[in-house]
């Protein structure tokens, strides 16, 4: 064994695959920039082979210093913002002799090439032809010129070329690589000025060609000679027979609207080896000839299989994404079949076009169709998480597009999704309340308030506090309650708003204080009286008043004799459901527990304490869940041995209720927060009322039943004693 010990990880060369994955991860998560890309400058310790800086803001200097020293096989520098040009990339790569020979794939989509005619710089050619190992080149949406294309086509190993949406005017240069070019992608060449006869002649000379994409943007409303000539070229190609491009296995003519069915039929029947046909937005995807070729993959709108293929292949093409989504929406309106693969493609379409309102309008509608009812429950959780993240992005990016907002709200209003899928619930709550503040359409208002009520219950106490700092959040929910109360209606919107306010103030003193400052207390007093016979409304109102009563510095705001006498009457009413009496008792127990803070008549406090004890002893056991707690902290002061029995009895009854209904969760909470010791102290104290002792003992027994034998033994043995 080496006496100096093993080498540290820093001394070892990071595996090439891991270096590639690290760069990819940094790029995907938006962490890659001029500073962070610097870790790849040491090409001995971090050896890159496949590098992607797609969409990352990396300058020409940082690119040259960090990536060009590597012996790269693949580089994707598409859509890099901040001024990096194709010339910068080529000059940098050409400066490394190893890279000039090794690089096989280069993608510069969306960049300004900024290249003149290829020149010599100290004996080094700085055009694309200097990268003599290139086999695949993607130049979508670039200022590609005819001269640069001439240079590109002189590459000796060029097999795949994508010049879609570029500004080339003629394709004669392709004849220079006619023996090597296997795949030509030439979607929407809007400046092409070549006759159909000449184009067909050029295509016919590409002897090695297996895949030809000569599709067009059908949304462009383009009646130019270029489009007309392109359509005519496709027609002639289809009718020319297999002697033209005999090796062709794949043809994409999506968006070419003037092609007839007979030409398509003749082409398909004469090409037995055909594996793919692009027919989206041609009107031909329902052609009978396709049904007899089961293994032929087709992009079109005739069925979901064709649409899936379209979304998969055309992810970067907004025109085709929109077309596919339009038809997908109609095909999935009443679907009851889970389609996770389709949903994944819809989400990827949104990710690929983050600023496109048209894509998001259609995609969010499709998301709703694909996840509505029970469909979300059978989708992979990670996929649903990504889906919700994209919905929130849509809400944030397009706040003024009503239909996008509506689609997102309807998709979010899914109980499984809101309860079980990981996503940024705080952001979601802020976006939904922002929408609610500007809209009052009844159906969507109900959906928005329902979503908020669940979100507020699921976020952390820290996030709840952040929400409560925004007074507009509280005011908007109170406005909804006030609107409904003025009409005297009992509907889901009112109930959801009351639930949201209840959850918002739970163990959040700031929110409780803001509630009072927004005149919420006055409103709730009115609701308590006017909705006396509506027990569900009463419980939600009293639940929030419980939250206020738990905050010592706010208890004085509840010291209103009329209010407390009304609450006391609810506690005493034997005809009232236990839920209402329970929450009424909680308010009174908290306020009566601090004799020094009681500012009303002391006779009222004595009555409260007596009625608390008397009423609680008559309450039946409840089977259905009535309340949930984030913690038992508000109970600690109520369980002190010095407290009146009515206060203690309400606290132990409440703890016993939730522990019996969800033992594993609440008994762990009891033990963690130290309440088991308080209960034991009550049980052993000579002045504790027998009713309180009985319930306390029952809770302690439940705790012991949940514990392991070792935990029980440890809890019964004092430290240092046997």
TrEMBL record:
From what organism does this protein derive?
A: Xiphophorus maculatus
The family this protein is said to belong to: Belongs to the zyg-11 family.
Recorded superkingdom: Eukaryota
Q: Which GO CC annotations does the UniProt entry carry? A: Cul2-RING ubiquitin ligase complex
The organism that produces this protein has a lineage beginning with: Eukaryota, Metazoa, Chordata, Craniata, Vertebrata
Q: Where is the signal peptide?
A: none
Record-given protein name: Protein zyg-11 homolog
Q: Does the keyword Ribonucleoprotein apply?
A: no
InterPro entries on file: ARM-like, ARM-type_fold, LRR_dom_sf, ZER1-like_C, Zyg-11_UBL_adapter
